[in-house]
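ok so I'm stuck.
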Amino acid sequence: MAKPTCVIVGVGPGNGAAFAKKFNHEGYRVALLARNKSYLDKLQTELGEAKSYICDVTKPDQIADVFSRIQAEMAPIETLIYNAGSGHSCTIENLDIYEYESDWKINCRGCALFGQLVTTEMIQHGKGNIIIVGATASLRGGANFASFASAKAAQRSLAQSMARHLWPKGVHVAYLIIDGPVSKSRTLDGSTRDNQTFLQPPDIADTAFFLTTQAKSAWTFEVDLRPHVEKW
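replied:
not stuck anymore, here's the structure
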């Protein structure tokens, strides 16, 4: 019997790598999607059965092509983790419309396209998981997050719509709200913050995997994750 596949969209050295390592450890084959080929190749080597695919989520034709290759090479797809994200800090006064459009394409449109592609197979099998990685900005629009917050709010509403449609068909859609900075080399470099104020990617990945193991009688739609010292 073929191992199930977990497709991870947006793989980098933080959450993306942690999701890949966790699901690989739990017996999944992992499809690694991102734009950084050198990092994907390195991670693929570490994980053994994983396969890497170059994918720019702002390009619908590329999404469709990559998904077709994954279906041919790695089916059945049991879990999709949409971790691609982009956020420009700006007020409405200095908003750049092209950055605004890019945030929406990456956070919302790409999520919709991948969600649409995986659902047919999942519905046919009567099971599957779609986990979408969000942010606190999806719940409230800070003054300096006019672009990012609106894109994440749209993503969260999309996730709710998907869940209401897909749950009765056996497909678990869940939304992870990450409240706080994530510990990875880029955010820690030069930071004076105490490390305990950062979320740890392996712990986030543990929660994501747990969501895929829940019984249908008690599914979670939304879970917010924050360090124990975070003010909220």
